């Protein structure tokens, strides 16, 4: 037999993820769809899960065509709660908060209709989304503060930025 590096455990025997996000303040919860006689019901967010304790100020959806990438962006005061309900996406995070114990950490997760999860992204975390697979992905965002049209809380970096040690594409 060839020698190599053994895989580390990524799920429990109940198929729950064992790898917590490696970025301080980021919360991740896999969600189990419930089979019904006519399809599936998937809860997206429940206050009682205690993921962040923040209000829901706005809910919006974003589509990404196959191979589409949202680009690196962060917020100064807004918390994102991302859930992919159609298709599959890779969410990539970079902790750009200099005072954070995980400053400089990078974390990725593939989520979507087949493996639903919600990712809570606090202010100051750079994040980008890449659509995977052959279909258009649909991402829901349940932000704690509604978008301010006159003063957007939205900061951007180019896809190929040298400030983040990971390339989205």
Q: What do these coordinates show?
A:
By secondary structure, this protein is an all-beta fold. The protein has a domain at 27-45 and 54-146: Jelly Rolls (Sandwich), CATH 2.60.120. 0% of the residues lie in helices and 38% in strands. The chain has no helices and twelve strands. Strand 2 and strand 3 form a beta hairpin. The protein starts with 26 loop residues before the first strand and ends in a 12-residue tail after the last strand. The model has no long low-confidence stretch (mean pLDDT 92).
In sequence order, what are the helices and strands, one letter per element? EEEEEEEEEEEE
Strand content: 35-45%
Largest sheet: 5 strands, antiparallel
CATH topology of the domain at 27-45 and 54-146: Jelly Rolls
Key words describing this protein structure:
169 residues; mainly beta; Jelly Rolls; 12 strands
Task: Set down the secondary structure blueprint.
Layout: E1 27-30, E2 34-36, E3 39-41, E4 58-64, E5 72-74, E6 80-86, E7 88-95, E8 106-112, E9 117-121, E10 125-132, E11 137-143, E12 155-157
Antiparallel strand pairs: 1-9, 2-3, 4-11, 5-12, 6-9, 6-11, 7-8, 7-10
EC number: 5.1.3.13
Enzyme class: isomerase
Function: Catalyzes the epimerization of the C3' and C5'positions of dTDP-6-deoxy-D-xylo-4-hexulose, forming dTDP-6-deoxy-L-lyxo-4-hexulose.
Summarize the structure.
By secondary structure, this protein is an all-beta fold. It has strands at 27-30, 34-36, 39-41, 58-64, 72-74, 80-86, 88-95, 106-112, 117-121, 125-132, 137-143, 155-157.
